[in-house]
Amino acid sequence: MHLRHLAPAAVLALLPAFAACSDDDPDSTSAETSSAAPTSDTAEPTTATPSPSATSATPTETAPASTLPAACDVVTVDDLSRVYGQSFVLDGADTGETTEGGLSWRTNSCDFDVEGLVDVEVSLTGPGDFTKGSFGCPQPSDADGIVEPVDDIAGATGGWWKVSSAPPLEGELRACSADALVTVEIDYEDGQDYEGDPRSESVQLAEMVLRNLQG
What we know:
alpha+beta, DUF3558 domain-containing protein, 3 helices, Protein Transport Mog1p, Chain A, signal, globular, single chain
C-alpha cells in the first residue's frame, strides 16, 4: 500500500476546517475581590472640664479703731479717793465687750480697789468701738436692778443710773457725750454698808473723766 503524501498546499487548505471544528474556550475572568477595610468613625468621647466658678470676695466692714485714750490715762487713784472718800489702789487695766439689747460694743477699762470693801471700774467706749448697732447711749437692762435716766451730768448729753434692788450694793452709771460713753461700775463686798450717795459721787467721777477727755 502506497501512502500518498499531501502536497503542502493541501495541508494549508485543511487548516481552516480544523479551526472551525475546535470549540472556543470561554474566557475565565477572575473577578477581583476588593476588600475595603472598615473604617471606624466613632469619635472618642471628650470630657468637658468644668470651668472654675468665680467667687467674689465681699469686703467685710470693720468698725474704725477707737481714738479714745486708755481709761487709766484719764482717771487716777487720787480721783477715786477724792470722790468716794476711800483709799483706793490701782487694780489693773482691762478690755472687754458688752452685748445688750441687740447692741455690742468694746470697752477699755481701769480697775480700782479698796480691799475687802469695794471695787470700782471706769470704762471708755468710742463711736468706733460699737461692733453691732450704732453708737449712742444704751439703756441698761432692768432685769436685775432699778434703772432711771440721769440728765444732770456736766459735759454729757444724757445718761443712766442702775442700782441693785437688794444688798450688796451694785451700781452702774452711764454718761454719754458725742464722742464717748463713760461707764462707772461700783461693786461692794457682801456685808458692807455704803455710807453716802453712790449715784451723786459716780456722777462727779464721770464729769471728771469727760473733762479729762476734752483735754
